[in-house]
Structure formats: C-alpha cells, structure tokens
Amino acid sequence: MVIVFDILVSLVVGVLAGLGVGSGGLLILYLTAADGMGQLAAQGVNLAVFGFALGAAVLVHLHRREISLPILGFVVVFGALGAVVGSLLAGLFSAEALRTGLGFLLLFMGTMTLLRK
Amino acid sequence: MTDAKNPSALTRAILLATLSFAGGVLNGLLGTGGGMILLFALGYLLSAEHAKDAFVISSVGVLAFSAVSAVMYGTGGSYDLAVLPRFALSAAVGGVAGAFLFRYVPTKWLKRLFAALTLYAGLRMLGVFG
Questions:
Q1: Does residue A67 surpass a pLDDT of 80?
Q2: In chain A, where are the structural domains located?
Q3: Which of B29, B45, B129 is the best mutation test for A, with the most CBs of A within 10 A?
C-alpha cells in the first residue's frame, strides 16, 4: 500500500514541478512523516525525484517556448556552483536545524507569494 | 523575449549570477527553495509580458541545482539510490502532464496553489500540526 502512495505523491509532485510552481517541500514532508525517512535522506530523494520531474517537463517547455540562452547559461552555471556549496554545507547542520530552517523558508515563500501582486 | 525593465546589462548579469548562486546554495542546503529566489530575480529582470518565461527559466535552473545536489547527496551516502525507481517514473510522467497543463492554468492560480502548498508544508515542518 505504501508504494501506491509513493507513486501517487510522486505524480502530484511531478505535475506541480511541470506547472513551474515547485512542490513546497511536499515530498520531503511525505517522506519524513509517512515513510519514516531521515531529514537529510528525504532532502536527497526530493532533489533526485525533482530532477526527473523537471527533466521531463523542461523538454516540453523548451520545445514550446523560445528562451534566452545567455540567461539560461547564467542560471545553470552559477546555480550549479551554488548547489555544490549548499550540498557540502548540508552535512554540517543537524536534522532539526535543517527542518526548522526549511519551515521558516516555506512560510516566508508562501507569504511573499500571497502578498505580491 | 528578455526585455529588461530598467537595469544595465552589467547590473542584470551580476544580479542574475548572484541570485542564481544563492538559489543553488539554498536548494543544496535545504533540498528545496532555490526556485523561489530565481523567480524573484527573474520577476525583476523580465518585463510583465514574459512572466511565464520566468517559470520556465526557473524550472531549468532548479533542474541544474537538483541534479548537482542529488548526485552529491547520493555519492555522500545521504540516501539509498534503490528507493528512487518507485518515485522517479511517476514524477517524470507528472512533470510532462504539468508542462502540458501549464499553458491552460492562469498565472494567478499557479501562485495561489504554490502559496497554499508552501504555507501548509512550512507549518507542518515547524510542528504546528503536531
């Protein structure tokens, strides 16, 4: 039964990724609460699963829209460098600190989205 | 498609590079959240008629962050690669479905959906619902 929920939640996360809104940490929440996974492991699985969802979605998006390559290049190169730094830093913090940090970040993101026109 | 609102090309490049880097750090550190920083940056750099391009560029950026971080988490032993198959296929199918739905869903509903999800998940992370 658990695997059915795993598939359904992944499907929902994939649709949200394809819509460009992200998932609001939904998969991390599910993995830690329902699957009993540790915070760092759930973050890793979330990143990998998001990669699959976005990889598929981006192929469709780029086929339909003409996007500036210089902007994409900047975002990918500097973002990937940042991702290396962030991933190395992640191992230095406790699960509780990461969870609290993520909680406040999500609240901030949700509030800003509602407040912005 | 990349009309700037007003800043110079150099300012735009520095801003985009800095916020892309910050988004990558955040995504790698917390496993999510980098896309929001990118959307903020792109909202400042792109004109209103290209608002939907920001979602697509952000998606490409988050794909890069996520791929790099997922490999680093995986090679560092943070999670078991064997769990991925039961999540990855349905997530990819969902990603394609979402990308096709993208043109039919108004931007304001995308934002509301995103806000509702993030607020709920944030409160759960902080233990508000026990």
A1: no
A2: 2-116
A3: B29
